[in-house]
Design goal:
Layout: E1 32-33, H1 46-60, H2 73-86, E2 96-99, H3 101-113, E3 119-124, H4 128-135, E4 140-147, E5 150-151, H5 153-166, E6 173-176, H6 190-203, E7 206-210, H7 225-228, E8 234-239, E9 251-254, H8 257-265, H9 273-285, H10 288-313, E10 319-320, E11 328-332, H11 338-348, E12 350-351, E13 353-354, E14 367-371, H12 377-394
Parallel strand pairs: 1-12, 3-4, 3-6, 6-7, 7-8
Antiparallel strand pairs: 2-9, 4-5, 8-9, 10-11, 11-14, 13-14
Helix pairs in contact: 1-9, 2-9, 3-4, 3-8, 5-6, 10-12, 11-12
Length: about 400
């Protein structure tokens, strides 16, 4: 008889979920990829990264290739501190931890703060990989609706008051993407940000602020939740994936020293010496403000192309939010199950991500996420035209 593998009881929750990445699509050849939340290839700074690698190895030889790594490594955290200070957040060295992308930061926060009894409050809809991470640690969630102004803090306040009155467990953390949210593209208003901080102080939960798209604004930069935080209740998650390159896997967590220190106890990846030293060298050589402005302008223009195409080709009943930054447009096709419609769209030659993947407990499947970041202008227009034809046959 085959002996059962003695998996830890602590990971039993993970086996109740779909395998990681189940939302990834197997796309037919030639399909227009409006599902891909990737940077535009021409905006990835390939030559600059190549130059950084050459300069790093010329100057330091084998050092970046060892466990201990390059003397440039500590400089990366200092550079991130400087960037955060420009955005209104002053941090000590002990309040920041460089991670392998934002996902590692989310996982480390979950590992040190969550258990099977913990309640996580999160936006509905929200980032699907964050849902995967949280589902590995707990099955208790509060789903807070999102509208055109971001997370509905009035509704959240009602939910919290009801739970307290009924003696139910209050959330341990709230996860939010307040700026250019994935998937909706919405940005939380300043009034709602301030109210969220008040609620955290009143009900005693921590806020996990995912700022993956926060630098890619099409207008004035919104105020970070961490910049409004006076009670040290916000753990800020940042990333260079969307503004440099996702394959570099550079992110960070910034928050209370005790939490950051504990996260570091469980971060056993030796801090990726070569990747971090390469990123440091890259940042030494670039005007980062100008770089971010260039990206924001490019994605704003691509967004305008998509919105114009949606207005031209989508049936009148279809609605969407116009984003203020980021990569995505959130579309609602009333009365249509977008999961069931997906094979028709793929056959027609265009992809999207069905909306049910962005909900912890999907209640309707009328939504889908489109990305304008990766495809060319011509592909965006043609892809939306094809989507309009498919949607028109289903409404």
């Amino acid at each position: 008889m085959k002996e059962e593998i003695p998996f830890s009881k602590d990971i039993a929750l993970a086996f109740k979920n779909e395998p990681p990445g189940s939302w990834l699509l197997d796309l037919p050849e030639g399909c227009i990829r409006l599902s891909s939340g990737y940077p535009e290839p021409s905006l990835v700074p390939v030559e600059e990264v190549k130059s950084a690698v050459v300069r790093l190895l010329d100057e330091e030889g084998d050092l970046p290739l060892h466990y201990k790594g390059s003397p440039r490594m500590p400089k990366l955290a200092a550079m991130i501190q400087e960037r955060m200070a420009k955005r209104g957040v002053d941090l000590t060295e002990q309040e920041i931890l460089v991670t392998s992308g934002a996902c590692q930061a989310i996982d480390l926060v979950s590992r040190v703060l969550l258990d099977s009894k913990a309640v996580v409050a999160l936006e509905a809809p929200t980032y699907m990989e964050a849902l995967e991470v949280f589902g590995n640690y707990t099955e208790h969630f509060m789903n807070v609706p999102v509208d055109e102004n971001g997370m509905d803090t009035t509704r959240f306040a009602e939910m919290l008051a009801n739970r307290k009155r009924e003696g139910l467990t209050l959330p341990r953390i709230l996860y939010t993407i307040p700026s250019s949210q994935n998937p909706t593209g919405t940005t939380m208003t300043l009034e709602r940000r301030a109210r969220l901080i008040e609620l955290a102080e009143e009900y005693g939960f921590l806020i996990l602020e995912d700022d993956a798209y926060g630098e890619l604004n099409f207008g004035d930069a919104p105020r970070l939740l961490k910049a409004l935080d006076r009670g040290n209740r916000v753990i800020h998650i940042g990333s260079l994936s969307k503004v440099v390159a996702p394959g570099m896997r550079i992110g960070w967590a910034a928050g209370p020293e005790e939490i950051i220190t504990t996260m570091n106890w469980f971060k056993k990846d030796l801090h990726h010496p070569f990747g971090q030293a390469t990123m440091t060298t890259f940042l030494e050589d670039i005007d980062f403000d100008a770089h971010v402005e260039k990206l924001s302008a490019a994605y704003k223009r691509k967004c305008e192309v998509m919105i114009a195409a949606l207005e031209k080709f989508l049936p009148p009943a279809v609605t969407w939010y116009t984003p203020e930054g980021g990569y995505f447009v959130w579309v609602r096709i009333p009365g249509v199950d977008t999961m069931e419609m997906l094979p028709q769209a793929l056959d027609a030659g265009v992809s999207y991500v069905p909306g049910n993947y962005f909900f912890q407990s999907p209640e309707n499947n009328e939504f889908l996420r489109l990305s304008f970041s990766y495809a060319t202008d011509e592909e965006i227009v043609k892809g939306v035209e094809l989507l309009g034809e498919v949607a028109g046959r289903n409404i």
